[in-house]
Inverse folding.
RNA sequence: GCCGAUGUAGCUCAGCUGGUAGAGCAGCUGAUUUGUAAUCAGCCGGCCGGCGGUUCGAGUCCGUCCAUCGGCUCCA
């Protein structure tokens, strides 16, 4: 007998060789039907794999991320089986589960697969799923594995196997399909009750653009048909919230091929929104001891050679600008930091003057590959809400805490209540590839982790994810429909202080090297606007709305009164418009609602007589009648914290 | 950049197997003078993404370039 410990710490005894499925069945038949996999001592196993030793276990169902992952991984096999049966001779690359579903990279030879083929494949997948095909795990020797796929003519699998250790290789068989696979998998295909293939895409074999491009097919499966319907609804909702669509509808920004792709043009309304965001942030920066600096859009090539950016952005980015002076070249700045380093460098700095916190809404230019451009989230010219903090090593933690506070304050302000954080640390097995001393790295990593813990961030620790120049802390927000966006980043940099020979004079009268912290809260204004629009579905808060109030005269007779109201609002710095079109009030309200204008003021005979406005709040309807002053006070009250 | 798809009026879209462009919304004009999510009528508006080709004839077929979309890769 062996002892099996459950998540609630209770222990039950089972005979050796018991499987997850057996354990589930010993609890209830219902659980046995729902169990997709089992976690054994922290490792996810097939629910059908026998357990021979004492173990802590957790039965995994659809409600567990690992349960979903197992199902989607098995679904990738199911899709591969369906595709192999429909298109014999295709070759398979890799087919993992991903955050929302799974994909498989496939070499279809000469056949050009398209979404028209999806229905056929989905039907075949469901047919196989209903057959309740079992997933059978089998250990194979490297020779046997190679032999199998050589005979099958699948060079991709052969390549994968060649990279594996003999003795660690497993095959999974389901129906007519055998795949090289680590697993785990479902006991059988029956939990898969709904299938949807989502898209095709080209994907380089092993992510290497020099190698062959395979066809990737994305799909998702569910244990219930209703869940698929829900998922498809969510996709619809995401489409409705697409910032590119909202940006057009609300007339915020525009792209012109004549200006150049990836170069956003901000319309009057959009520019206003940007200004509001930047003004708000500036005010916070002053409060928190930052100082604004400013630098030009170009800098001498030598600046970027010193910083190392030339190497990174020189060849594949906008080409340097030449001048009448032979040999003289300037670059559009891809980063603000070199300029800020030179601002720091302008005079000897005392330890008493640190930290220096330089902030700039700096517009930078990077020649992104045409295929990656995407609305406002990926562009070629964008404005970072950038800042660089130059501090002493003993100030690092405190500075981190300061930035974390600012980030949290802003997330709260913008209603991003759901976010995760990640600390990127260096790879402990490969310390050589990082610049900076061992001691400094240890201290910095420690400082970041401590700062994050003090702020209860509960960060994910990602070893080996740090840049070569320093560890960092990233903030990833989840928007209203659960999508993740990386916004804020705080990065330690040992590299630039070195390259720019930054110094301060310490209390010991010796020269010391300051530490530099890069930090951006919004990331870029462009991206932040995009995320805001998708998060709010275009319903911007009052203080950000380009038009805060629209005055709707019931008929032309009240035009003069409407203008009077408008003037009063303007005097009070409330952004308003009059809808003086010859339309009925219902129509004007409808259009204002669709434009998500926070307040509508209906004015007619009653209002003109009593010097009032009838207030309608966007999304909520009629709020009743108020004096103009009452209304203005209420508006000013709501926005005052943001001015 | 690469793979695939798409590109028709300011916006959203229709236009079958090639015969020379259509709707709704927006805009303009007029009528109506309106009370909390679409008043009616008329009008304007298109080198059918650009360039080449096939054809008597191309929005429709072919090539090419550009842009957009979904991915790969990269990143804010």
């Amino acid at each position: 007998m062996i002892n099996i410990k459950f998540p609630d710490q209770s222990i039950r005894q089972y005979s050796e060789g018991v499987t997850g499925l057996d354990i589930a069945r010993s609890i209830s038949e219902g659980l046995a039907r729902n169990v997709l996999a089992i976690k054994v001592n922290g490792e996810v196993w097939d629910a059908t794999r026998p357990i021979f030793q004492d173990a802590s276990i957790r039965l995994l169902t659809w409600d567990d991320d690992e349960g979903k992952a197992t199902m989607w991984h098995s679904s990738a096999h199911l899709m591969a089986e369906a595709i192999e049966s429909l298109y014999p001779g295709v070759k398979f690359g890799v087919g993992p589960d991903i955050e929302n579903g799974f994909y498989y990279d496939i070499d279809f030879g000469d056949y050009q697969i398209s979404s028209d083929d999806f229905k056929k494949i989905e039907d075949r997948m469901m047919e196989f799923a209903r057959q309740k095909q079992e997933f059978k795990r089998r250990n194979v020797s490297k020779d046997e594995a190679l032999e199998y796929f050589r005979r099958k003519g699948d060079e991709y699998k052969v390549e994968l196997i060649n990279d594996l250790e003999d003795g660690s290789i497993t095959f999974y068989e389901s129906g007519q399909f055998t795949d090289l696979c680590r697993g785990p998998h479902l006991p059988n295909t029956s939990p898969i009750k709904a299938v949807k293939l989502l898209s095709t895409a080209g994907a380089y074999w092993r992510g290497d653009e020099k190698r062959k491009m395979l066809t990737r097919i994305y799909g998702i499966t569910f244990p219930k048909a209703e869940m698929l319907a829900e998922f498809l609804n969510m996709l619809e909702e995401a489409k409705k919230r697409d910032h590119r669509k909202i940006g057009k509808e609300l007339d915020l920004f525009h792209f012109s091929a004549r200006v150049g792709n990836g170069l956003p043009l901000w319309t009057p309304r959009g520019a206003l929104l940007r200004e509001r965001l930047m003004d708000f942030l500036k005010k916070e920066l002053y409060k928190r001891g930052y100082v604004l600096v400013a630098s030009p859009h170009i800098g001498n090539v030598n600046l970027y050679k010193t910083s190392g950016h030339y190497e990174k952005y020189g060849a594949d980015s906008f080409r340097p600008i030449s001048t009448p002076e032979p040999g003289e070249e300037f670059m559009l700045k891809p980063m603000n930091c070199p300029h800020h380093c030179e601002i720091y460098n302008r005079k000897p700095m005392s330890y008493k003057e640190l930290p220096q916190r330089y902030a700039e809404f700096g517009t930078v230019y990077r020649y992104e590959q045409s295929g990656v451009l995407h609305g406002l989230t990926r562009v070629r010219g964008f404005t970072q809400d950038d800042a660089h903090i130059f501090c002493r090593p003993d100030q690092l933690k405190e500075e981190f805490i300061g930035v974390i506070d600012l980030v949290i304050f802003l997330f709260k302000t913008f209603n991003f209540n759901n976010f995760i954080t990640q600390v990127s640390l260096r790879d402990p097995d490969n310390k050589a590839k990082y610049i900076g001393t061992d001691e400094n790295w240890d201290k910095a990593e420690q400082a970041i982790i401590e700062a994050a813990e003090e702020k209860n961030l509960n960060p994910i620790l990602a070893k080996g994810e740090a840049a070569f120049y320093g560890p960092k802390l990233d903030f990833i927000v989840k928007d209203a429909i659960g999508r993740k966006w990386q916004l804020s980043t705080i990065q330690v940099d040992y590299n630039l202080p070195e390259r720019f020979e930054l110094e301060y004079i310490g209390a010991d009268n010796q020269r010391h090297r300051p530490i530099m912290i890069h930090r951006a809260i919004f990331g870029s204004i462009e991206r932040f606007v995009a995320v805001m629009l998708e998060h709010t579905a275009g319903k911007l808060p009052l203080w950000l709305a380009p038009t805060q109030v629209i005055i709707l005269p019931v008929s032309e007779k009240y035009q003069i009164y409407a203008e009077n109201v408008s003037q009063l609002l303007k005097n009070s710095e409330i952004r308003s418009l009059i809808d003086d079109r010859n339309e009925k009030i219902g129509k004007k309200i409808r259009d204002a609602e669709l434009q998500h204008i926070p307040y509508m003021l209906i004015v007619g005979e009653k209002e003109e007589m009593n010097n009032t406005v009838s207030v309608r709040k966007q999304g909520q309807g009629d709020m009743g009648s108020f004096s103009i002053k009452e209304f203005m006070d209420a508006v000013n009250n709501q926005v005052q914290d943001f001015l």
